[in-house]
User: Fold this.
Amino acid sequence: MGEGDGQSQYAESLSLDSSCFSSPPVTFLQELPSYRSIARKRTTILPRDKQSGTLLKPTDSYSSQLEGEITENLDNQSIRKYALNISEKRRLRDIQETQMRYLSEWDQWKRYSSKSWERFIEKAREMTTHLELWRKDIRSIEGKFGTGIQSYFSFLRFLVLLNLVIFLIIFMLVLLPVLLTRYKITNSSFVLIPSKGADIQCTVYPISSSGLIYFYSYIIDLLSGTGFLEDTCLFYGHYTIDGVKFQNFIYDLPLAYVLSTVAYLALSLLWIVKRSVEGFKSNLIRSEEHFQSYCNKIFAGWDFCITSRSVADLKHSSLRYELRADLEEERIRQKIAERTSEETIRIYSLRLFLNCIVLAVLAACFYAIYRATIFSQEHMKKEIDKMVFGENLLILYLPSIVITLANFITPIIFAKIIHYEDYSPGFEIRLTILRCVFMRLATICVLVFTLDSKITSCDNYPCELCGYNQKLYPCWETQVGQEMYKLMIFDLIIILAVTLFVDFPRKILVTYCSSWKLFQCWGQQEFAIPDNVLGIVYGQTICWIGAFFSPLLPAVATLKFIIIFYVKEISLLYTCRPSPRQFRASNSNFFFLLVLLIGLCLAIIPLTISIARIPSSKACGPFTNFNTTWEVVPKMVSTFPSSLQSLVHGITSEAFAVPFFMILCLVMFYFIALAGAHKRVVVQLREQLSLESRDKRYLIQKLTEAQRDMRNRLD
Assistant:
């Protein structure tokens, strides 16, 4: 009886305890912030919207979900990708081996062959990582200065590879057939361009060679692309043939020339878009709240690739600067909210006035480039023996000098103007960079458009005979290529001169004359990532425009970027200090590629006008029998069968273009809506994380109160 009574009392106590712990949790859990938030949403959202509370519905455990996923994908997925411990992985591997026994020999062979192929691909990827260009140097820079500066050098490596591929495309399609025929490597011959009754005046192309008697003429020719370089394969005028005749076919060189241009532009576009997709995805959903931004900077803002003490101190100062910038943005946000209507009108009037000043500065720079180009083009035909060495170089490089001065002065003016516009620090940086990007890239377009206007205008000379100013530009494509070549060379000279004659002496003065207050205020040169990126994007834009007029310009650009890599690396290690405004690698890569994409779009505009609108030269080049360069494409289409011609004409007609454009708009609208839906899901997940943190805080508070009550009862 005693034992039975004890068991009954124990059961009653258990029932009492279970009753005590079974009923209160219902009301207790209903007090959680997440439950209250969903209850409010359910009362405010229509009954047909059943997705408001799906995120917090009870789900199966992670292990059960993972096990179901593995059992479904066990045949074609690797176990190593799952976050499991060793014992579970071994158990799954045993299951996989057991399943293999019941398969046929053919299925087993397919399974083993697929695994072998996957291992081969992994080994090949590991080998290719060791073959990366400048892998050791970039890893060293990343370890000493962080991922922000490392992303700049990785971007520079990408441009080297891009220009190398562009050069290979042009070399294979244009230069290789010419070299094989010229040096009689293959049994082929040139097909000369047949004469189609062009006026004899339009076919005159005098190549200047009188200046070679002077000792400095070789230097001038090397720096300007004139003289002995003008009739080489470096420029457009060298390829004055209609094709290459092999044993079984005739290679159409004009068509290959146009297709190489289209190919390298399309390749550049696809490559840039492919690399920028990942950064765009991360930036599309990165709309952090202010509190979340503070938490990310404090708890997840450190760069663990840093090993140097000085760079670690710099990273500390960078984080402090970012926090100060965030606080300043919050202060400006509150200031904007507290603005009166009079203050709002005043600040917008001031911004309008300052933007007018910015437009005036841009217009003045563009006009200066226009006048310098006109002056240089009108006086460059002057006999060299009537000019001294410096005067000749000054006239040849006058547009490049003016463009360089404009690119140097305008960022300083923009940085002074932006302080008076009362923007947040982050927006100040973005707007200043946007203005500098537009300035740097638009100067090249202004130069090309000025040359185009000068080519198509003849003043007192009739243009109807040849369609362009043949007296001043007998081979205008080569002369445009020479201008792009001079811009490329002059940009490299400026980078080398600034590093050798500004950065190194500044480093010596700051190091050994640190007691002087002037040098203390001057300080070391900062390695500003945006300015350096704009410089190499400027050079890449020149390459895209000039590759049509100078087929070997991508090779020159490749050598230039290789030199810039080593010069910038030495400058970073020995003369410069990293900027306190550091960039994260994810933000930097997307920003670099976005600026590069803008440069590509701006390069396509003048290049398209030159190919499709301006009459081609009648004295040089493979298009002497065509009114424009693009006419070679309709000629090629006319050789197609009639059915294929009808298909091509149908695709290029308005009847196809309008529906195709509408379909593209619908597809774009679909992807925009899909991106918006994904962004809303991300916002919803962030809300869930926030609610879970509040639940934890609430539970900890209740647990603390329960412990306090327990202590009071015991006392």
About this structure: The first helix runs from residue 2 to 22.
